[in-house]
Amino acid sequence: MARLPDSPASSTTGEADPSVWPLRAASPFDPAIEQRISQLLAAMSLEQKVGQIIQADIASVTPDEVYRYHLGAILNGGNSDPGGRYNAPAKDWLATADAFYAASMKPDGTLPRIPIIWGTDAVHGHNNVVGATLFPHNIGLGAARDPDLVRRIGAATAIEMRVTGIDWAFAPTLAVVRDDRWGRTYEGFAETPEIPTAYARPLVEGLQGKTGSSDWLRGPHVVATAKHFLGDGGTAGGKDQGDARMGETDLRDLFSPPYLAALDAGAQSVMVSFSSWNGVKMHGNRSLLTGVMKQRWNFDGFLVGDWNGHGGVAGCTTTDCPQSAAAGLDMYMAPDSWKELYRTTLKHVQDGTLPMARLDDAVRRILRVKLRAGVFEAGKPSSRPFAGRYDLLGGPDHRALARAAVRESLVLLKNANHMLPLKPGGKILVAGDGADNPAKQSGGWTLTWQGTDTTRADFPNAQSIWEGIEENVKAAGGTATLALDGRYSNRPDAAIVVFGEDPYAEFQGDRPDIGYEDAKSLATLRALKAAGIPTVAVFLSGRAMWVNPFLNASDAFVAAWLPGSEGGGVADVLFGKSDFRGRLSYSWPRSSDQNSVNIGDANYNPLFPYGYGLTFAGKGELSTLPETRAQAASGGPGIVFAAGKPGEGRRLLLGKPGALSVNPGPELIVARPADRAAQEDSVRIGWSGQGNAIAAIVQDQSVDLTRQSNGDLALELELKVNVPPTAEVSLMMRCGANCLGGFPIRAMLVEAAKTMNWTRIAIPLRCFEKAGVNMKQVDAPLMVATAGRLDITLSSARIVSPADVQLACK
């Protein structure tokens, strides 16, 4: 893209100057479609029009409500599934699609019938459905540098979506990621716009088909979504839903090129980012949504919001936000807020706050995409091409494609003494908690939002990395042994240790730095190295990380990213069936606090630069690297308390209600350091029983936890009860002045005191919301209050996706 001038007046504000952005020519309209849209608009009621611009989540809406409110679209969030079962079978997805479609087509007097469309986050395959093919996450595909590969992946994903009756993919993610602390780093192809720009067209065309072809948006294809517009990978500190603080030139030149490529490929929807640009929320930025996207770039599809993202716009709530539509948003993603949002939006149109012309334009755009996609004539989802062909989910051709993608994505960072490729005919030891773990190798956005709380049975069409190794070794006449702890009775010829990050998604995946720590895996590597056994480290991660101790402790080191369901692709390369082809699309850090290191930066000094990647023939030695980690930060946004101290931006305060302080004196309550697994890694808090007293973790700035509450995350405590409570105990959250909510937990603490052991308590965030907490402005995520005696030791408090829940709420 040619360099364009900047606009000095807009360089440090959230107001774009569209005239300095590239001009994109408009595509010709189909006169027949435009005439039909006009006829529909003339026949639709105002209520129908408002319903078309609202999208509800299947966990919060029924088919009957779709009919009554004329809703235009539904979605399934990361934790929303047919019947509320994360592992619902494919047939239930198809039946659910039929039910919602039928509701949208049910006669209603003389009003025209407008089919509903269903959007899903198919970000590495049709990843919400059991048995679907799971491709490598985008970070791995970026390393492959193969546009034709992503085209074929898009086409395979679209077909598997059609099997279950879903016709709209919230993909591709085109973020350019500039800070690896961001929990969505693995959703981005690269740290520069080069690769996502090269991938945008083939991936959109793989999903949608080519514009002008007879099967564009129909048959084996679905509607694609370029997301998240704009600058989501450039937020300060890598904060999810944060603020991209930069001039307009950087916003335009670094982050927008992939979107232009996607529009040129015919992308029919664009998802607006949660994030802000220089303090202005994207969901309310008219200069970018209307000025750039629609007027300068002549985008004629529709702009859809992200999960209640409109609620962050100044002056808005999740249930009342005409500002977003006025700014250019065409469809609100209002998963659980849809009903009240429908009512307020209808009122705003009726009183003129939201002009009818803007509503008609939004509806026209949505109808245009639906007509282009043929949904008016397609019939119920189960009657459409590929529907119900469950053999195509994880079918042989798609799995072979995924396995090939894994082979292309792997990056070899170290290969001392040309250790790789391994000889499959020998004795191979396989260790590490990632070796036989399809969930871990698949990462977030896999069956559940965070990719957690699944079982091996949920991956019927997957092959773990261990299973792929065993397959290769047995075929060559060798022996393979799985021992997760690395212990052996017969000395192996070589060892493979598979380890890395556990699954996570947005918010939960944000980190304070990019230093990787894993004492167990490091000890395994070091023990094998000390025994003189040649050892390969296979590292699973959703980002580039500081791993110096692990590099030192291994003879060969492979960045395997998050390969998905086909672990055999990793084994194929380790045993030389294919050479390493992957090249880094993210620079790897030299130190644990080198969180934002990108090619082109001043003083660019990574450990492994952008584009690095060895082959078997390359010089694979590394000098011994320094292993001292920079001072670790106190945790990401989900860390309320850990390692003996509150999380980043949080403080522990004590005292009586309304008078909390760091050190209030010992009369009512006292806190002192305590040991669990390490010195002073916990805190012991004692209530004297002389009056009502509170221990609270408070924040420097309030935080919006609505997304986490909707996503079934929980506040998880690890504690030990030293002295049981003598009076009721309240567990609460605070949401500003005169805003508090919680519930009694005395019975739970009394029960825990009987064992004197460490106890884990997990409380869904939605329980606090139902108890009156405004989750949009939580300023104290943990408060424990009692007027009686109580003595506890708190080891940790985190906002997580829990393994199970001890406290249920209605």
Task: Report what the structure shows.
- By secondary structure, this protein is an alpha/beta fold.
- The protein contains 22 helices and 30 strands.
- The strands form six sheets. Strands 18, 19, 22, 23, 25, 28 and 30 form a seven-stranded antiparallel beta sheet that branches. Strands 12-17-16-15-13-14 form a six-stranded mixed beta sheet, sandwiched between helices.
- The radius of gyration is 27 Å and the shape is globular.
Question: Briefly, what is this?
Answer:
The chain has 810 residues and is of the alpha/beta class. It is globular, with a radius of gyration of 27 Å.
Brief descriptors of the model:
single chain; alpha/beta; disordered N terminus
Into which percent range does the helicity of residues fall?
25-40%
Structural class given helices, strands, pairing? alpha/beta
The chain-level mean pLDDT equals 94
Report, as a whole number of angstroms, the end-to-end distance.
54 Å
Described by the principal axes of the CA atoms, the overall outline is globular
Give the topology, please.
Layout (H helix, E strand, L loop, with lengths): L30 H13 L2 H7 L1 E4 L5 H7 L3 E4 L13 H16 L11 E4 L17 H7 L2 H17 L4 E2 L24 H15 L16 E5 L13 E2 L3 H8 L1 H8 L4 E4 L3 E2 L2 E2 L4 H11 L5 E3 L17 H6 L4 E2 L4 H13 L5 H17 L23 H14 L1 E5 L11 E5 L6 H5 L22 H11 L3 E4 L11 E7 L18 H12 L4 E6 L7 H5 L3 E6 L6 H7 L64 E4 L2 E2 L3 E7 L2 E3 L7 E6 L7 E7 L4 E7 L6 H5 L3 E10 L5 E6 L5 E5 L1 H8 L5 E6 H6 L9 E7 L2 E12 L10
Parallel strand pairs: 1-2, 1-11, 2-3, 3-4, 5-7, 6-8, 7-10, 13-14, 13-15, 15-16, 16-17
Antiparallel strand pairs: 8-9, 12-17, 18-19, 18-30, 20-21, 20-24, 22-23, 23-30, 24-29, 25-28, 25-30, 26-27, 26-29
Helix pairs in contact: 1-13, 3-4, 5-14, 6-7, 6-14, 7-9, 14-19, 16-19
